[in-house]
Amino acid sequence: MSYRIQIEQRALKTLKGIPSQDRQCIRFAIRALAEEPRPQGCKKLTDSNDWRIRVGVYRVVYRREAASGGRAEDWAPQGRLSVTAEVTVF
């Protein structure tokens, strides 16, 4: 079962400014989060419900949001993943 991916408008705007080849890699990584929301190398951010993955020199920050009535902490494949505006170079 997979998650529904929602990319925030600010993240889409940021993606438009990234070179085409890098943008394709980032999109592939974001799509892969639908099947595996905690891939190898992901990191939970301190004092936040956000997680991050690295894609080349970029960092993609996302959060798991629960389906109605569920708890985000359960990581059950019923909710959605929101990619925030923080697609940044590190």
CATH topology: YaeB-like fold
Question: What is the count of structural domains?
Answer: 1
Range of helix content: 10-25%
Strand order of the largest sheet: 1-5-4-3-2
Give the overall shape, derived from the CA principal axes: globular
The CATH class: Alpha Beta
Q: What is the CATH architecture descriptor?
A: 2-Layer Sandwich
Low-confidence runs of at least 5 consecutive residues: 69-78
Radius of gyration: 13 Å
How widely separated are the two ends?
A: 32 Å
Number of strands: 5
Q: What is the arithmetic mean of pLDDT?
A: 77
Strand content: 25-35%
**Main β-sheet: number of strands, strand sense, barrel status?**
5 strands, mixed
Layout of SSEs?
Layout: E1 4-7, H1 9-16, H2 20-33, E2 43-44, E3 50-55, E4 58-65, E5 80-89
Parallel strand pairs: 1-5
Antiparallel strand pairs: 2-3, 3-4, 4-5
Care to give the gist of this entry?
The protein has one domain: RelE-like (YaeB-like fold, 2-Layer Sandwich).
Features:
single chain, 90 residues, alpha+beta, YaeB-like fold, five-stranded mixed β-sheet
Describe this structure in words.
- 24% of the residues lie in helices and 33% in strands.
- The chain is α+β, with helices and mostly antiparallel strands.
- The protein has one domain: YaeB-like fold (2-Layer Sandwich).
- The model is unreliable at 69-78 (pLDDT under 50).
